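Incident log, structure service

09:12 report received: a user says their structure output differs between two submissions of the same chain.
09:20 pulled the input from the user's history:
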Amino acid sequence: MTAKKTHSIDDPLFGFDEDFEVGANKVLMLGDSDISTHEGMALAYKSAADILVQKALDRDESSWEIAAPIMYLYRHSLELSLKWATQSNAKCHDLEGMIQKANERAKQQTGKSLHPAVIERMQEFSEFDKKGFAFRYADAGEDAHWIGVTVKLLHLRKVMDRITADLVQLGRQR
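09:34 re-ran on a clean worker, output below:
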């Protein structure tokens, strides 16, 4: 039986001294959590975005350096939530098509469409980032439709709370 391989940056090169570092024994356990489904992964990305939003809200100065990561995490959470809701394993980033499929599935499962405001907010993410690259790369070019857009952080978080709840619930209706 072979021992499990561990990866660490406990190398002296990094100046890591376990005796003096607070939280030195905190670890991330990869693959041993609820991220094996689109639902689990979507909730993980949303949680990370929520943490960054709270960090930005707690600061007195501008948080421009975490704007793109927040938007990327929420956009990716939305994409995975849509895949969960539509039971799709497609390797695409087309939110618009997934929004339509989620709305069709909502009609089939509940007899009602998704709330119009939920659809509109999801479509805004699609307009900002049609291909899934705008918040990941500095040279997103034609995909960067969000430049100059102002986003209210509390509103964004509440919108994502509602969208995620609706899509997760839809995905759980098998």
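09:41 both user submissions now match this output. Likely a transient worker issue. Closing.
09:42 reviewer note: The longest helix spans residues 38-58. Residues 8 and 24 are 11 Å apart (CA to CA).
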